Amino acid sequence: MSTPVTDDDILARWRHEPAPLLPVLHAFHDRDGFLSEEAIRCVAKGLRIPLAELYGTVTFYHFFQRFPPGKAAPRVCDGPICALHGCADVLAALRKDGATPMPCAGRCDEPVPVLVGDRQRVADRDGRLEDRATPLPPPRPDGGAECVFARVREPGRATLAGYRAGGGYAGLQRAVRELTPAQVLDLIDASGLAGRGGAGFPTGRKWRAVAEAAGGPKTIVCNADEGEPGCFKDRVLLDHDPHAILEGMAIAARATGATRGFVYLRYEYPHTQGILERAIAEAEAAGLLGESILGTGFSFRVYVRRGAGAYICGEETSLLNSLEGKHPFPRNRPPFPVTHGFEDQPTAVNNVETLCSAGPILARGAEWYRGLGMGNHAGTKVISLSGDVRRPGNYEVPLGLPLATLLHGWAGGPLPGRKVQAVTMAGLSGGFLAGADLDVTLDEPSLRAKGSFLGAGGIMVFDDTRDMVEVAAQAMHFFAHESCGKCFPCRIGTQRLTERLERRAGPGDPATWRREVEDIGRTMKATSACGLGMAAPLVTESLLRYFGPQVEAHLRDRPSGGEAHPA
Amino acid sequence: MTETAPIPTKTQRASTLVLDGVEVPFQDGESLYQVAQRHRSEVPTLCYDPRLDAFGACRLCVVEVEGFRTPVASCTTRAAAGMKVRTRTDALEQHRKTLLELVASESRDSGDAHGKGTPGHVDPLRGYASQELATLTARYAVDGTRFAGAHSGRSHREDDNPFLLRDYDLCISCYRCVRVCAEREGDHAISVANRGFHTQITTEFGGKLLDSSCTFCGQCVQTCPTGALADRKAMRNAGQPGELTKTRTVCPYCGVGCSVDIVTRGERIVAVQPAMDGPANEGALCVKGQFAWDHVQHPERLKTPLVRDAAGRLVPASWDEALGRAAAGFAKALREHGDESIYAIASGRAPHESAYTIQKLIRAAAGTNFVDNCSRA
To answer: Which residues of chain B have a CB within 8 Å of the CB of A334?
Structure first.
């Protein structure tokens, strides 16, 4: 351990691995605490990346520090929920250590997370830090059947022995020993499983497209870049059920003919990398991953790659560019990743929760999974519920469950004496629901009819003590902070909407203000290049729909400076 | 930028789609933007340069395609048989105006005299494509008053290279400069730093161009649609009265044969711009062709022949005297040392006509091929 790690050691370790840039940058970042000019020059030379391009790419990620104190300085979550729980106090208390804010770090069920070096800790308002394990989901209150959470609360579940004791890897065994790849695809199709990361694309169709696409090697990517504010569902699966993810990836590989896989893990979950790597090593040693899985000719290797802080990298084509070491702008589609994904070869990018569903579906059948939903809706969805409710946490709900049942029945409703004023949907991306529109069921058709969507399943609750204009301003600030800067409507639009909500610029007259905000939003929704820019204006749209009078009062009480602030 | 994509011939597989109600043919692989351009649909764009991969940043070129939920960027969408495409509906035109209002709101006033009052106005001497933004804001009657807020770019006045003005106060982050540098030049001297509204065009570590791998070819200047990157030499002549005239010629510096337009005002050369339709260069130039024209009007340039006097000093002389002296010298050398005693090297700074004449002289007068050009490639 005392031998210093040289530049050459780092390059030699990673140069011949797939997707080497992020791990190489992390190795320098970990060794030096920041990415020095010398380190960037060394990486550019070692991996043959043009220097200016690498420099630009490094600056894209907000956790790569260029100067001391670098990664040692605390980062305090200032996401929407942490804002309700005194993150400003935490930040002030830790300012002496060089603390700066970071966007939602996915611990809204137990705020306020603080990232210190390679540990995510939890702070109280005075800045006292504690190490705590990722909270387990509360038991399903109505005792109904779950899919991905069915066994997650069992002790030792994260180990291979614990996972197998609960019937783990039975799905993979069936997929490899009893079924052909075509039969696996048919089974997933029949289950009705659809993408649980937000887009809701049918998983069977995605896998089939990869299976049928020409070229290779084919790749399975587990999107564990859970960056949506108010979403912390993948975290519990990653930390407590890593083998379920690996089993799902291996089933996907079996179905599609993929030979390599990546887990793209968000930076904010540093401890999770070790959990995943230990699980991979265990599975490989047991012949469940790697060469010749279960003694057959089927081989599939999985690599963990850690992101460096960029919400847009949860968008699948940005994620692929990031993996490839390119600037993480989204790609133009078509072509889609199923034909032109990682290194331009067929690739299935699936969310953690989607992959975790595959094992139980293979083991228990398509009908079983379909039957978990309500009415015509197939299966379940994990909802990350946070904010002003008595029992925040992750709940695996049957699709089609009334929102009111989740809020008031399962989670205990608002705090005493308070009322639910509004909830967000899809983390922040679905905007707000309020008033009569809270009478919805948790499924896409019901929510889309209200101009929103379920997305990745983050629901944040704001009671009647909250200033919704301020919540909207913080939300838009997040989107502006995370806009990648590629397409004009998002890059400029999120900035202008933030300025208008924060009253830093823009007209004071409510009618003019509303026209500007609506015009920007309409054009962003219609013309943005990816989901970020299309979803961000749902925040202002729904704010104006439900909280028009509050907006007018806000404009009256806080006159704008009326002049442009420098960037 | 305008583009002339080839019209499909009978031998190529041509399918058709419906463009604004008219059935039109297209070639496999063409984008909707290319098809629309060829049919003069005047779809606006700011991030498109026909020499570069379609990028899809500005979204001005969005069109409606039947069956698609939202408009699509025509530059990144491939034409497909049977598509029904609308390039100019009220909704599209409204989105374009809003986008241009957003763009106009993010950059500062150029300070140039040319076109003052129009958002995006810049002196045309800044570069070949520099009028694109101002042309569009005028076309869409964008007055620059809406969506006021922070400005996005930051000019690098400290970058004291002699060729490229980095006036990023006017930058709209279309990244045409970054893409032309990478895709066409292979220099990768500049890239995009940061995210979102804070993106900046940067060299490695944010330094000066002279310390980067920039070759000063000027391609970034000529593709910039706002004049944020400008031709510093040309800008010495900015804001002066008189029409600009472009004269097509071929760069004399080497054997590639790049087409250039010499931009003149009255009798003076004020800039050189690449010819986008030049068959040898398709708009590309190098630092010499782009920027090395100062000598033509240099105050210290010789205006009369010089001959040496008895003491060996150079003194002004008439052309007759100078030519007589030169001819006598050549004749003497030939007489005393033979045909192969003369070797002529023409200057790359001389016009083609002079280069032609010098080889004619050597071949005809000396009867040898002992002739060359200093910048022969």
So the answer is: 78
